[in-house]
Each structure stands twice: as C-alpha cells, then as structure tokens.
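Re: [ENG-882] Designed sequences occasionally contain unexpected residues at chain ends

Forwarding the minimal case from QA. Structure tokens:
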C-alpha cells in the first residue's frame, strides 16, 4: 500500500482509514475516523491469503465477552473486504491509545509500587474474567494492556488465545508436551519454554514477570545475545530456570515471592484463587501505607496525551468534511455525516 493515500479510503461508506499504528505476524492495525459517530476507531486488518487466519477467532472471543468492561468494544467485522492493495478481513473496535508499555516509557521506565499494585490488581481481574469464559490469552505483555482516560486497564489482542476447557462441560484440555513456544519469550512462563501445553497458570506467571519488570525497570534475561531466535529463547529459558524466585524478587515486598511460588506450584488443570492474588497485592499496599485511589504515575502526562487525541479527532473531522464537499469519489450518501455545526 506504499502508493496509497489512506485518507482517500472509506471502508463500507463509514470508516475513513487514517494512520498505521502497529503490526505483527497476524495483521496490521490502523486508526480510522467513524463518519457516523465522529470518533476515532481502531481497525485490525488481516490478509485473506495468510496460512493461519486468526481474526475470526479474535472476533468470536470479543463477542463472547459481550462488551464487558476492560475489553474493547467491537463495532464491525468485514470478511474478504477489497482494499486497493488486496483483500482483507477487518475488525473494527474501540480505539484505546495508551499501552502500559508506552506509559512505562512516559514514566522513564520505572513505575512506583503504588502504580504497579493498582495495575496488578486490574490485570488479575481481567485475566480472571477471561479464564471464567474458558479462554487463556497466551501472550500476556505490557503492549497488550491498554488504558482509557479513567485509568481502567483493558486487555487486548486475542490472536493467540484459545479455549483451555470446553465452555459448556468445563472439561479441561489434555496435558501435552513438545509444544512450540507461543507468546513473547520475555514474559513467557517456564513451562511454556519447556514445551508444555499452556493453561491458566501460565497467564498468571507472565503477569508476575510484568510486575517485576515495572518495578525494576527490566528483567534479568533482557539483552541476551545469541546467534538466532531459537538460541536466544533457549538462553532465556536457562536464565529463568537458574534464577531463584527470591533473587528475581530481590528488594521487592515478600508478597511477590509468595505470588510466584503459588503460580509456579499450580498443576496443569488447577483453578487459581484470583481473589487471593488481589488480597496479596492489597496487603502490600496496607503494609506500605499506600492508598489505592486510582491515581497513577502517568496522570500528569496523560492529560496532555488525551487533549492531543481530541484535537486529532476534531482535525480529522474537518479534513473528512472537506473531502465530502470536494471529492467526487466519495458517495453522496455521506453528505448526511457532515457536522451540522460546521458552516
């Protein structure tokens, strides 16, 4: 699409394609302007020609969640939609600009204990909801947690997710070995590195690594050099296996050691006690005289980001209305979408 101007592309007479904001092995994410609701949305595009399509499964999972708070709303899903550079499946969803990784950078790559605990509690609540719906995420990382303007944490990107049990009978999937590593190696559980089929315990171990990452600024296995990805993943696994939990959690509240001991001792099909994890993090706050009041390290900066986002919406609206007036290729039916306040 190198020679295509995205602002000239309108999907289904409703969404004006805007900026590319991300990409991965399963697709590309764009922002778009919703002509009817005058708002920015996110579009996830997946080529219809890829060998392992995932977007239909992700759409199915979001529908299962039924607009539950903490997961993006889904507005539309188009199958085999023709774009100038090929045919794509397109998932249209709520746009949430700020990932925890972006906010981590904004805060000089260190979160306070208070911010980390509040994030951790919300992460546990989101993953508990997923697991209750018989879904494991399998790619828990800071990039896949986004926040809204009220500091509510959202879990996104279910391209690697799967059912760990039958949704009706609750029959757990069987234990298997020799599985390929699925997810992000930096945050993957030890059992995932060892090739063991993932279950609920693995999502929780990944959350633990994220919290240590936020408090310390990095993880001990970051920056490992190797000749190729396979060798690097092997070295990361060896580092995780060799590192005692008390060393991983050095200078952190003892409850983090308790957390890792709990999740690593879970058997494959065990149901975790999510409320216990929340109480564990709340006890850290209590012992350190921390008030969990929904104030975060990034609050002073996020207002600037939010204001810029609103300005972006307004600017996009003006540009699109100008296109409606002057571009003969835009259907006349879109005239009704013009802002009545525009003169």
């Amino acid at each position: 699409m190198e020679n295509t101007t995205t602002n000239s592309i309108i999907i289904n007479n409703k969404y004006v394609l805007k900026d590319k904001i991300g990409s991965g092995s399963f697709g590309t994410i764009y922002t778009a302007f919703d002509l009817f609701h005058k708002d920015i949305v996110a579009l996830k595009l997946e080529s219809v020609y890829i060998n392992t399509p995932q977007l239909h499964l992700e759409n199915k999972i979001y529908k299962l969640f039924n607009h539950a708070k903490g997961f993006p709303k889904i507005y539309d899903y188009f199958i085999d939609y023709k774009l100038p550079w090929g045919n794509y499946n397109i998932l249209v969803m709520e746009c949430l600009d700020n990932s925890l990784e972006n906010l981590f950078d904004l805060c000089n790559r260190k979160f306070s204990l208070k911010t980390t605990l509040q994030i951790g509690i919300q992460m546990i609540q989101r993953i508990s909801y997923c697991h209750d719906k018989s879904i494991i995420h399998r790619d828990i990382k800071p990039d896949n947690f986004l926040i809204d303007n009220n500091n509510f944490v959202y879990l996104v990107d279910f391209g690697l997710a799967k059912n760990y049990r039958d949704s009706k009978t609750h029959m757990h999937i069987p234990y298997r070995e020799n599985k390929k590593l699925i997810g992000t190696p930096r945050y993957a559980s030890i059992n995932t590195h060892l090739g063991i089929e993932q279950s609920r315990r693995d999502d929780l171990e990944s959350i633990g690594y994220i919290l240590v990452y936020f408090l310390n600024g990095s993880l001990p296995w970051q920056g490992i050099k190797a000749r190729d990805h396979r060798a690097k993943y092997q070295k990361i696994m060896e580092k995780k296996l060799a590192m005692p939990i008390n060393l991983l959690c050095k200078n952190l509240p003892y409850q983090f050691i308790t957390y890792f001991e709990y999740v690593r001792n879970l058997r494959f099909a065990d149901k975790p006690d999510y409320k216990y994890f929340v109480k564990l993090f709340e006890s850290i706050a209590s012992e350190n005289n921390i008030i969990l009041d929904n104030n975060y390290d990034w609050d002073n900066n996020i207002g600037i980001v939010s204001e810029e986002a609103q300005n972006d919406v307004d600017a996009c609206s003006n540009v699109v209305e100008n296109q409606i007036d002057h571009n003969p290729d835009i259907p006349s039916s879109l005239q009704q979408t013009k802002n009545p306040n525009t003169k």
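QA comment: On inspection the terminal residues look reasonable. Residues 328-343 have pLDDT under 50 and may be disordered. Proposing we downgrade this to a documentation issue.
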